[in-house]
Amino acid sequence: MSAPMLEAVGVSKLFGQVRALNEVDLTLGPGVTGLLGPNGSGKSTLLKLFSGQLLPDAGQVRLLGRDPFRDAPARRAMGLCPEQDKFYEELDGYRFIEVLTRLHGFSAAESRDRAAHALARVGMATDGKKRLAAMSRGMRQRTKIAQAIAHDPPVVLLDEPLNGADPVARADLVKLVRQLGDEGRCVVVSSHVLHEVEAMTHQVVFIRFGRLRAHGDVFRLRGLLTDRPYRIRVKTPDARGLATRLLALEHVRSVTVQDEGSLELTTTALEPTARATARLAEDLGLAVSAFSSPDADLEALYRYLMEAAG
Amino acid sequence: MTEDRVHAIGYQRIAAPGRRASAIWPIARTLVTLALKRRATKLALILCLGVVVGHGIWLTVQLLSVRFAAELGMRAGAFRLQDAVGNVQEVLASYLQIQFYFTTPAIAVVAGGAIADDRRAGAFELYFSRPLTRLSYGLGKIVGTAAVPLTTLFLATLILWLAAVGIAPPHIRADLWSLALPALVGAGLATAVLTAGMVGMSALARRSTGVAVAFVALLLLGSAVAEGLAESHQLWGGYLSPERDLRTLFDALLEPGASSFAGSILGGRARVNPSVAGSALALGLYIAAGLGALWVGIRREVTS
């Protein structure tokens, strides 16, 4: 396993009487990780701890092995795209990013070059000349992402990066986030939009009530929820005939014929059952017009984990 | 874990700038750049320029009159002339006093939102997720805020003094050399008072407009109340007015003497506090309070 780029070891954070984070242990390496949880679950607090804006009440936070709160130069290795998007409205996109990039110690000329490069990367080479006040929500969002990557940081923290972006921009941004991860950066994406997170990564972290609920690959995590069997829907002309044969399979718990043309089964093992179903259909000479598992995705995993958390 | 180990897994090492530029200048420059985009800033600075031009004209007329009188050998006439147009000390003291009034709203317009706007816009998140220390941020805001009084008070005083030295007849010029330091110390003090007060108030507030109005009200209207107290024999009240404290120090530094006819048109020499040391102490406390408020305001945003 590669060396951790972001680490939280036994991290707790209190705001008055409210425990925003409770003994969180988390290690993140290169690649994109989705940070998921309902409002108030502690996602933003965790991002603020990682970005050195808060000091944990207990435990330690490490950014490339250094304390991001006390060691200001360590924050050079990190880029943050905050959720908030009301900044210096009178500045244009280029000037806005140049100012922020200069805070990393780059000269004005180099900051300008980096601003231009970052804006081009997020597809804002032309619109970046507009004042922030005149930009659409999606443009501002892209400008915010550009400022987070202009100094080429190994760690990128994105808080709701797709807010307000139109469908084309969303697709572009999803692609960009994946590229950042493919380059070996540690990219953490906090979002409520599950299908967009799913398009970016299968690595996820679930937080609820300040506690870490789960961390890992979506499909492996789903497989660990043994009390929640998978549902599989199959559309085939002889659903009743196929159902009879499916009941004999090892992992299948139940089969319901919904009408003559479709059935739904529950199983504890998705992949073996899927393969066996296909084989049976072939043996019976049945055409399968649709095959889906409505609860094998991130949304189902999220729902189950959050239900389990109460 | 070291950066080298992380580098080994594939992403590019961050291109480290050769000689790191200070974060203070971009912060200060942004503050000034944003302010200069506002119409109110331009108006306030034009008014300040008017004060410079007005005193420049007074100074020019005064020194040219003295020069011609001296060249014509009108020694006694020159003395009467001085009663009419005053002396350079009086011009500089008057300039500092009047420009302080005009610079107060100007600095409020420029820097009222120096920190308040950052708080409202959530810019702290953007700033302090970078390798920026609280000290650099605070100094950046101080430098940006000080740009106004440094220009309208310090730089303009220097220009007026240089103009005086350039125009003055030789027998007066020698005396003017010794005026530079007191005049610039006075301008520096006024700059420090305005800057510290402004950043302190901005650090504790959320809205630039509110800060600007409160700052002007506190400094000018509060000063008027303090003046009233001092004039009604509550002498301690005079020390509560930064403007009166500064005036006391300007007079002590520049020794302008009695008001001339020209000076009296601009309001004449107002009364000052009886103790120069008391005024200096009051101003020191005022500056310390402003810087303290700045520190508290920044700590409150970026804290454990």
Quick structural overview:
The complex is a heterodimer of chains A (310) and B (304). With 310 residues, chain A is of the alpha/beta class.
Characteristics:
heterodimer; A: 310 residues; alpha/beta; Rossmann fold; Alpha-Beta Plaits; 6-stranded mixed beta sheet; 4-stranded antiparallel beta sheet; 10 helices; B: 304 residues; 0% strand
Describe this structure in words.
The complex is a heterodimer of chains A (310) and B (304). Chain A has 310 residues and is an alpha/beta fold. Helix content of chain A is 35%, strand content 27%. Chain A has helices at residues 43-50, 93-102, 108-121, 137-149, 167-182, 194-200, 218-224, 239-246, 270-284, 298-308, and strands at 6-15, 18-28, 31-36, 58-63, 78-81, 155-159, 186-190, 203-208, 211-217, 230-235, 252-259, 262-267, 290-292. In chain A, helix 2 packs parallel to helix 4, helix 3 crosses helix 4 (137-149) and helix 8 crosses helix 9. The radius of gyration of chain A is 23 Å and the shape is elongated. The relative contact order of chain A is 0.13. Chain B has one domain (24-301). In chain B, helix 5 runs parallel beside helix 10 and helix 10 crosses helix 11 (208-231). The longest helix of chain B has 34 residues, at 134-167. Chain B has helices spanning 3-7, 24-36, 39-71, 75-85, 88-111, 116-121, 123-128, 134-167, 170-177, 180-204, 208-231, 242-254, 261-265, 276-301.
Q: Looking at this structure, what is the CATH superfamily of the largest domain in chain A?
A: P-loop containing nucleotide triphosphate hydrolases
- Residue ranges of chain B: pLDDT <50 for 5 or more in a row? 1-14
Give the H and E element order of chain A.
EEEHEEHHHEHEHEEHEHEEHEH
Name of the CATH first level of the largest domain in chain A:
Alpha Beta
Gross morphology of chain B is globular
Low-confidence stretches of chain A: none
Tally the helices of chain A. 10
Shape of chain A: elongated
Number of domains of chain B: 1
Number of strands of chain B: 0
Q: Major beta sheet of chain B, specifics? A: none
How does the helix and strand content of chain B classify structurally?
mainly alpha
Find the CATH topology of the largest domain in chain A.
Rossmann fold
For the CA atoms, what is the radius of gyration of chain B?
23 Å
Question: What is the percent of helical residues of chain B?
Answer: over 70%
**Strand arrangement, largest sheet of chain A?**
5-6-7-3-8-9
Radius of gyration of chain A: 23 Å
